[in-house]
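PROTEIN–LIGAND DATA SHEET

This sheet pairs a single protein chain with one bound small molecule, zinc ion, given as SMILES. Inputs appear in the order they were entered. The predicted three-dimensional arrangement of chain and ligand is reported afterwards as a token string under its own label.
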Amino acid sequence: MSTRNRSGAHLALMLGLLTTSAAFAAAASNPGAHEHGKARLEVAIEGRTAIIRFESPAMNLVGFEHDPRTPEQRQAITDATGHLEHHALLDRSGDTCAITDSRVERLAGRADPETHQADHGDHGDHGEQDHHDAHSHHDDDDHAEASSHSEFHVMQTLACDEPLAGQTLTTGLFTEFAGIEVIEAAWVSGSGQGGASLTIDRPTLTLSR
Ligand SMILES: [Zn+2]
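PREDICTION REPORTED AS:
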């Protein structure tokens, strides 16, 4: 008889512990500091269940980060969201994991390309702390490069047909989203944790030490 019959709350707790580990602390506390081309994936496993968190700059997934301005851009966001909702972020070969829950959010950064301009002209006093975000470049009144970043965040729960410990999981994200160059992945289970940098040539994460 299995005693490994816990609720998803336990997994979510493990994922929380993973997220606060050193590897992810810096990025997690400063979402605006993301780097285009890179994405993060964290997975907590127990038995046949996995909870996965995926975070990526929107640039990697739709090619822009500003709010959509055209029907094509709105469609790109809808398409990316739909894909992330309906495809397992990780799976064993043969699609043996079923999605039991999937939530996708597009988080817009501070929408400042337009509204920012008003108070950006004269830097008379430097009292405004929040004026300085992750980007250190001061582009005076030149807003040719909009500084508003956005990200997609996905939280997904999988039910797989076999226990996941020791398995190698593959992500299809690289083939779906050409803008992703590297995924920094980490996993945690009741008995261990590990990580790997995933690329299109090596899109796999092995869940063993
Ligand atoms: Zn960005």
